[in-house]
Amino acid sequence: MSAADELDGPFEKRFVALGDSFTEGVGDIDPSSPNDCRGWADRVAAQLIANDSSWGYANLAIRGKKIGQVLDEQLETALAMEPTLVTIYAGGNDILRPLVNIDGLMARYRHAVKKLVDSGARVVMFTGFDSAKAPLFKATRGRTAIYNEHVRKIADDLDIDLVDFWHMKEFQDWRYWDVDRMHLGIAGHTRMAKAVLKVLGETDEIDDPEIEELPPLSLLEKTVDNVSWGREHVYPWVKRRLTGRSSGDDMSPKYPELTSRIW
């Protein structure tokens, strides 16, 4: 039997990633990966497996999912895998809705995270990004701050690892983001993978992302760029919300079962 024919698992260590587009990897375009994207979680998993071949990995995250959907559709599946490591981030899509009860949502989020902790898994949470310099999302900055206070309290009470996205000011540089200005790009996902590995205390052999210098744009060029961005990215985003659709409708998780084969 060749190495390629060997059984994939069982695994002594099991990393399961839960969430929405942030964890699915949207923006880190890679046609060779499931759902055509790679992302920080895949990069972290690849490094963990390189460090220790006993790791298995599952990524249940799907773009567009709100907190309730993430918990309803992913939590029990994750627990059934008996994970030793879980990353979870959800709430960004709730914050963007016209009306949202953040306190109520976060009470449910706390309950779910406690179930993960009680299972014996090491859990990593994330604060939300500081959108102060993001024109489309600037108005939601206050909501994100409230969300973050809940996350910090949960992490402190349950002794959970925290990746503090809010205070990673390097991400205010738009070169870390995809052209849609809503999701991290390849450089951003790479930088986030390195941040997660640092929190985990794991060896990190991922190369620093290369950030190209951008030529200055004239006022006319900026205007044309913003109009194009609005037509290609903002309008479809708004239309989906008005019609009750999600970018993740009819999509499946990238890695629904534990595997070490993620390349």
Estimate what percentage of residues fall within beta strands. Answer: 5-15%
DSSP, total strands? 6
- Mean pLDDT comes to 89
Q: Into how many domains do the coordinates divide?
A: 1
Q: Identify the CATH homologous superfamily.
A: SGNH hydrolase
CATH topology: Rossmann fold
What would the keywords be for this entry?
SGNH_hydro, Rossmann fold, globular, single chain, 263 residues, Lysophospholipase L1-like esterase, SGNH_hydro_sf, alpha/beta
Task: Describe the protein's architecture and organization.
By secondary structure, this protein is of the alpha/beta class. The chain has one domain: Rossmann fold (3-Layer(aba) Sandwich). It contains eight helices and six strands. α5 (102-118) runs parallel beside α6 (141-158). Residues 1-5 have low confidence and may be disordered.
Topology:
Layout: E1 13-19, H1 21-24, H2 40-51, E2 55-59, H3 67-80, E3 85-89, H4 92-95, H5 102-118, E4 122-126, H6 141-158, E5 161-163, H7 186-200, H8 219-242, E6 255-259
Parallel strand pairs: 1-2, 1-3, 3-4, 4-5
Antiparallel strand pairs: 2-6
Helix pairs in contact: 2-7, 3-5, 5-6
